[in-house]
Amino acid sequence: AQKITQTQPGMFVQEKEAVTLDCTYDTSDPSYGLFWYKQPSSGEMIFLIYQGSYDQQNATEGRYSLNFQKARKSANLVISASQLGDSAMYFCAMREGFSASKIIFGSGTRLSIRP
Amino acid sequence: EAGVTQFPSHSVIEKGQTVTLRCDPISGHDNLYWYRRVMGKEIKFLLHFVKESKQDESGMPNNRFLAERTGGTYSTLKVQPAELEDSGVYFCASSWAGGGYTFGSGTRLTVV
């Protein structure tokens, strides 16, 4: 069965530092997609970045990059040069297969950026 | 393009009452999903529509929950009768086939 694990319930980081949010996953399907979402205090779920299981390179989107280590089944999110506005809940998620189907979420990490 | 719209944004009801949540997906997105996050726990999948058909309803907790998507456009999720443990945030998302998921802002349901 597919599973997503986020082991860091909360993190504090100084502004402008880089931060890595951990995510490990488990699936028996060789085809899968990995997602990261941000949920600020306002409640909406904001898509950040996506990595497909066959993608050769790590995904990057602006200050966000996904450190994809397939053999270790990890998909850590790296935020460079953190900003106060990065304070939020961050969820790692996975979908088995590449067609539209449900995604499952990890328990989330609450990131707090200190000025 | 307009995003996924959910309403109400907040709802407070008494135990035993009925509540209906609505989700308007992005126009043209055949796939619509309902999720909920209860008591700060994990976000759990409820069900997946493809157009008006229920593709996967494995996450529906019990028969007090009824989801519909008549005409394959907007969807409703009815909870009847509501129980205290139903309190949480209910999210809707939509996607095109194989595409990314766009989430709504959620409905915060409080059952007292």
Describe the protein in words.
The complex is a heterodimer of chains A (about 120) and B (about 110). In chain A, the strands form three sheets. In chain A, strands 2, 5, 6, 10, 11 and 12 form a six-stranded mixed beta sheet that branches. A four-stranded antiparallel beta sheet of chain A has the order 3-9-8-7, with no helix packed on it. Chain A has a two-stranded antiparallel sheet with strand order 1-4. Chain A has strands at about 5, 10-15, 20, 25, 30-40, 45-50, 60, 65-70, 75-80, 90-95, 105, 110-115. Chain A is mainly beta and about 120 residues long. Chain A is built from no helices and twelve strands. Chain A is globular and about 40 Å long. Helix content of chain B is about 0%, strand content about 50%. In chain B, a hairpin with a 6-residue loop joins strand 7 (about 65-70) and strand 8. Chain B starts with a strand and ends with a strand. The mean pLDDT of chain B is about 95. The interface of A and B includes residues 35, 44, 47 and 108 of A.
**Mean pLDDT reading of chain B:** 93
Q: How many beta-strand segments of chain B? A: 11
Helical stretch tally of chain B: 0
Percent helix among the residues of chain A? Answer: under 10%
Oligomeric form of this entry? heterodimer
Helix percent band of chain B? under 10%
Q: What is the CA-atom radius of gyration of chain B, in angstroms? A: 13 Å
Q: How does the major sheet of chain B shape up?
A: 7 strands, mixed
What's the order of the H and E elements of chain B?
EEEEEEEEEEE
Uncertain residue segments of chain B: none
